[in-house]
């Protein structure tokens, strides 16, 4: 009988003793990752096709509008109107990006890994929401910047012309932010309901497209009050109505505002805020449920 | 009813997410009933409900979700291998799946279209819309079924077709209407029941020939693609 000669080697495992960055940095990392996912950055070429297709089209439209304006001096659309005219592309972009952001994580079951970090449930949803919102804002804002640059360099009034353009651009960017917030919250809520990206994309498009004709029907009803409230029927029209109320003739040239909305402008603003708040609350509730599984 | 179609039908109906499809036709019927009961002129509410909602949104979106779901969902899961390894000719896999997709889409779309058509004008318009809707369901299903074999992202590509090609370009560039299933359906319905509610620039013979061509062509393409189908992993 010999003594056991084995030795447990110390192969140098160590505990991490450095600083731990905490909640704010987790949120920041998740947000940045989400924003990169939205545009397919850091991923394969196939993941870039659809986001950049949309970006290509909106940039092309902006360049076309700028060219027409600088050559013929004809304003095809104002900065605020740009977002309205791109609404189908915005819907498509949401249908592409929202499932990428949330449905993949649901499908592959990695949420417990996220939630084992110092990351509250709400933060995960909020970071994804912020990423989608920023992506949408960039999608609508960047082409407006192209239009602004085109107009600023070809203006004939010197600095005051540039300043006027800037005053037109800023409400346009704010309006784009309104689009981004409303569409991101509604789209992300729908996408978070299913782990299948295909179904999520279909659902997002179905909800946004289905609601548009409702507005058309309500606006030809025989009651004036119903007509004035018709734009509550769909997210797209709701955003447009809020824009009409707050921006006025920047959005609808010719001073025909007021006819469509009646005295319900403040109501539209309130409903838009409520819609976003409700969507965010439901999103939080959804992630409380998912996290509990 | 073959086993493949049985499996496909169960795969579609067995999940809760299928209920997601039902609000679409219900909204269509509700809007038609509401407009009718309030006595709005059918000339005003007909086009937005029948064409704007029914033929431009409900039909393609339902066909897209169902048509890509019958085969695309199995490809995504990887369970398509179980069918592919059976000693079945490929057409015996594609045709039953196409039949189920067309049947489900046609029932979901034709019934509300019939109701809305009757409320808007006459029983004849209702029948015409329902029949044209069924033909459209066949063409769309064949297209989306083939798409789910051609690419790993059939839904997004299908959305590009529905939203950008038919929706966006169709409004600005009239030339694209010749290659739009939606316009064929409108032309066929208008031929079966001539009213002032439906308007299109595509002629009826073109619509009929193109609908048949799309249905047969994409089915043959799908069968051919399934012959040399390679199962790949998750898309990145």
UniProtKB/TrEMBL annotation, chain A:
UniProt key word Transmembrane helix: yes
Keywords: Membrane, Transmembrane, Transmembrane helix
Bilayer-spanning residue ranges: 49-66, 124-153, 173-191, 198-221, 267-285
Source taxon at top rank: Bacteria
Protein name per UniProt: ABC-2 type transport system permease protein
Species assigned in the record: Micromonospora avicenniae
UniProtKB/TrEMBL annotation, chain B:
TM regions (residue ranges): 49-73, 94-115, 127-147, 154-173, 202-223
Keyword check for Aminoacyl-tRNA synthetase: no
Family matches, as Pfam families: ABC2_membrane_4
The entry's keywords: Membrane, Transmembrane, Transmembrane helix
Source taxon at top rank: Bacteria
Protein name: ABC-2 type transport system permease protein
